[in-house]
Amino acid sequence: MTEPQPVKRTMHPLVKLATEVGPIAAFFFANAKYGIFTATGVFMVCMVASLIVSYMLVRKLAILPLVTCGFVLVFGGLTLWLNDDLFIKLKPTIINILFAGILFTGLALKKYFLQIVMGEVIQLDLLGWHKLTIRWACFFLVLAVLNEIVWRNFSTDAWVTFKVFGIMPLTMVFALSQVSLLNTHQLAPEENKKS
C-alpha cells in the first residue's frame, strides 16, 4: 500500500498577481502622495506582508521573492535610517547584478539555477536550461544598467515611475519572448518522468 501524497497547495492566479504586484503598486502610490521615504517604509511592510500571505496559502516560500524581500528590507532600512534615498535606488541595480552573477556562476559550474527555481513549473532539456539561463542573466544585466541610467539622470518620481511602469512591463515582454525557446526545448511528459 502506498502512502498518500501530500496535497500540493497552489495560489489562485489573481492572489499570486496581487502578492507580486501589490508591494510595488503601494510603493508607487505612497511615493506620489507622501514621498520616497514614506513609500520606502510602505514597500518594506508590503513585501513582508506579501511573503506572509504567500506562505499562509502555499506553506512554502519561493527563493526569488524571499531574496528580493531581504534586499528591500536591508536597502529600505538604510534609506530610512540614513535619510538617503540613494540606497533604495541602488537596490534594483545590486539585486539584478547579483541574480546575473548567480546565473553566470551556475553556468560556469554547469549548474542551472533557473532549473532549481522554476523546475516545478517548466521542464526543459539541458540545452533549453542553458539558453534560458544565458538570456535571463543578460536581461538582469540590462535591467541593472537601465536602473543606473534612470536614477542618475532623472528625478526620484521619474525613477519610481520607471520602476513600476518600465521594469515590470519590460520583464513581462522579455518573459513572453522566451515562449518559443520553452516550446522548442520542453520535455515530453514521458521524458520528464524519467528525469
Short description:
This protein has helices spanning 13-34, 36-58, 63-82, 86-108, 113-118, 126-153, 156-177, 179-185, 189-194. It is mainly alpha-helical and 195 residues long.
Rg, Å, rounded: 19 Å
Q: What is the straight-line distance between the termini?
A: 24 Å
Q: Give the overall shape, derived from the CA principal axes.
A: globular
Q: Mean pLDDT score, rounded?
A: 88
Provide the succession of SSEs: HHHHHHHHH
Approximately what portion of the residues adopt beta-strand conformation?
A: under 5%
- Structural class determined from secondary elements: mainly alpha
Q: How large is the count of helical segments?
A: 9
The major pleated sheet works out as:
none
Unreliable stretches covering 5 or more consecutive residues: none
**Number of separate strands:** 0
Count the domains: 2
- Please give the share of residues in helix: over 70%
List the helices and strands and how they pair.
Blueprint: H1 13-34, H2 36-58, H3 63-82, H4 86-108, H5 113-118, H6 126-153, H7 156-177, H8 179-185, H9 189-194
Helix pairs in contact: 1-2, 1-7, 2-3, 3-4, 4-6, 6-7, 6-8
Explain what the structure shows:
It is a single chain. The chain folds into two domains: 1-82, no CATH class; 85-195, no CATH class. It is globular. It starts with 12 loop residues before the first helix and ends with a helix. It is mostly helical and 195 residues long. It is built from nine helices and no strands. The chain has helices spanning 13-34, 36-58, 63-82, 86-108, 113-118, 126-153, 156-177, 179-185, 189-194. The model has no long low-confidence stretch (mean pLDDT 88).
